[in-house]
Design brief:
The chain has one domain (2-77, 94-167). 44% of the residues lie in helices and 5% in strands. The protein has helices at 2-8, 26-30, 44-53, 65-69, 104-111, 115-118, 128-135, 139-167, and strands at 35-36, 57-60, 123-125. The protein has a 3-stranded parallel sheet with strand order 1-2-3, with helices on both faces.
């Protein structure tokens, strides 16, 4: 569908779907300028890997992310569990339940707390036309985003290592 849209708009773009790639190594993915992700459960780890690589990432606009994120296995009612005692003393739920997957407002609210929104240097599209515009950006914009993503990934890695070192009392890192 994306290739057809690009062709109909005379955009010099070719979309490759990850299933089409024979070589799924980091080197192979790094040969591409950008990646478009329509997020759902299975794409979460890919998102983190591409982010750490500094691969510019394009996502659907923030207003519709909830409809993508809350359609997979980890958002089913099977995972909606509260430990006995955690709810004691709490009579009102301030935030909507994140497992109410058919409540668009709740899904949209919870999607705002995901890394798809909170991490810097990501690109968002609101329509197919805006997606094509983003993908035809200058290399300078992509290089700046890539460098920022790699910096953020390094900061996050150091922070995570400090956290786990404290948790396991490993000592100074």
């Amino acid at each position: 569908m994306l290739n057809l849209f690009a062709k109909l708009n005379n955009a010099p773009l070719r979309f490759l779907y990850s299933e089409e790639l024979v070589d799924k190594s980091y080197t192979s993915f790094a040969k591409h300028d950008m990646i478009v992700i329509f997020p759902y459960d299975a794409s979460q780890m890919r998102f983190y890997e591409f982010y750490a690589m500094g691969m510019p990432i394009v996502l659907p606009q923030k207003a519709v992310l909830g409809s993508y994120i809350y359609r997979g296995m980890t958002s089913t009612e099977d995972f909606d569990y509260t430990l006995e005692g955690e709810a004691k003393g709490h009579t009102a739920q301030v935030m909507p339940n994140p497992f109410t997957r058919f409540d668009y407002d709740a899904a949209s609210l919870w999607s705002l707390y995901t890394h798809y929104i909170m991490l810097p240097h990501l690109f968002y599209f609101k329509s197919m036309a805006s997606l094509l515009e983003l993908l035809l950006q200058t290399q300078e914009n992509l290089i700046a985003a890539s460098a920022g993503m790699r910096r953020q990934a390094q900061i996050d890695t150091a922070s995570h290592l400090r956290f786990w070192a404290e948790m396991f009392q490993i000592g100074e890192l």
